[in-house]
What does this fold into?
Amino acid sequence: MPITSIMNQCNFSPGSIIAAVVLVSIIEAAPAAPNLEPAVEDSNPEIATASQTMPNAGGAAGGHTAREQDIARRLSLAEAYGEVRWLKSANENFLAMYRESYQAIPHGGLIINIWSGGIVDSRPLHQNLARIAAAAGWAVLSIQPAPSNSTLSAEEKSVEENPRLDAAYEYLVAMGVQNIVVLGDAEGAIDAMSYIVGKASPAISGFVGLGKWDARLEETDIPILDIAGTLDRGAIALKEKRKTKYRHRGTRIEQLEIDGAGPTFYGYEDQVAKRIRGWLERVTPGVAVLQR
It folds into this structure.
């Protein structure tokens, strides 16, 4: 379908249309296969400068893949996407997008973790959510996922299987943020929950799961917001399964259905983002943020 037809149907703003056009060029330029290129040095001085302005950021030398460098260069052309950051995990530097809280004293930090093989900030939902959360006082960090070569089930995964999530967590903690909510989309929610269980940190105060995901919840009692579109049958089935299985969980799982929405929530971005913002304000209001 032509991009103009999609925009008209979804009633996007002019700024969102510009961001979407940039996104199309990213997707067309980025290799479709999993990222297996050898690391190369980043020669973009703007990205190198940005990476040095935040704590715990990886420098421009080494660790970046060609694919992530290309995504970063293109994202840096669209102001709506936020600021490019290079984070450092145990064995690599990787791409993230950062939005600073619009408020002098932030409520906390929000980490957005998408599915393996996806492109950070590639969907209007993630862009709108980051923008709305930042305006509400949250520092937002969206991370580029690594291609997954793991054959482990959700029950077998541990913190060691999520070095990028751990780097994002440490990045926010280094900024003085001690009230962190992790949001996972589809497969990204499975990885995020397994990380939360393995980390068991009091700084992680909540979890938001979008779409189709399934993970063990017995080992954590943090608040959970579970969102699915009514047209996403797989997501609805798993949501109902969680409702039954964890009905006696100490901290109730709050579940939300978005009527008419499918797996990507296209056309419902603002509705979903505003509902998440309301949940953040009500459930994790930011009582444990360290002032700098």
